[in-house]
Amino acid sequence: MTPFIPQNDLERQLIAAQEGRIDPEDFIATLLGSEVFMPIYERHQIGGLQTEKAAQPLKIETDNGEVLVLFTNPERAKPFVRDFPGYGGGLVVEFSWILEKLGIGFAISLNPGETVGIDFETQDLARMAELQAKLH
């Protein structure tokens, strides 16, 4: 596996959190204000235009429910999405947008397959949504 070289502040903060150099709450605050890459299914397109309005994000079904797959930057997604035909593209969005638009009824895996990543359970997202509401 290639070494994980941080490409942005979110990745630097994630490493610091995993190494115990910053509080988990500080990392969550950074995450809420950061952009993440969300792989989406590329439906049949006509002339390069999406034929359906709703993007279908990559979610994996587990024994514990759905897990939304996100990455700290688009390059991190490439090795992972190879196993999911149709998910070559995606959206770069604010993490807070995901909480607002997609809700909180699922878990999240940030950088699955990477040495630097983190998983959030459904209850973690509920707490993040509460924190985000307090910040705004």
How would you concisely characterize the structure shown here?
The protein is an alpha+beta fold.
Keywords:
single chain, 136 residues, alpha+beta, Trna Endonuclease, Chain: A, domain 1, four-stranded mixed β-sheet, two-stranded antiparallel ribbon, 8 strands, 36% helix, 24% strand, globular
Give a structural overview.
It is globular, with a radius of gyration of 15 Å. It has helices at residues 9-18, 24-32, 74-81, 95-102, 122-135, and strands spanning 35-40, 45-46, 49-50, 59-62, 65-70, 89-94, 107-110, 118-120. It has 136 residues and is α+β, with helices and mostly antiparallel strands. It has one domain: Uncharacterised protein PF11572, DUF3234 (Trna Endonuclease, Chain: A, domain 1, 3-Layer(aba) Sandwich), CATH 3.40.1350.90.
Count of DSSP H/I helices: 5
Secondary-structure content class: alpha+beta
Sheet with the most strands, sense and barrel status: 4 strands, mixed
Shape: globular
Strand portion = 15-25%
Radius of gyration computed on alpha carbons: 15 Å
CATH superfamily assignment?
Answer: Uncharacterised protein PF11572, DUF3234
What is the ordering of alpha helices and beta strands?
Answer: HHEEEEEHEHEEH
- Can you count the beta strands? 8
Uncertain residue ranges: none
CATH topology: Trna Endonuclease, Chain: A, domain 1
> Portion of residues in helices?
25-40%
Mean pLDDT: 88
Indicate the CATH architecture.
Answer: 3-Layer(aba) Sandwich
CATH class: Alpha Beta
How many domain units?
1
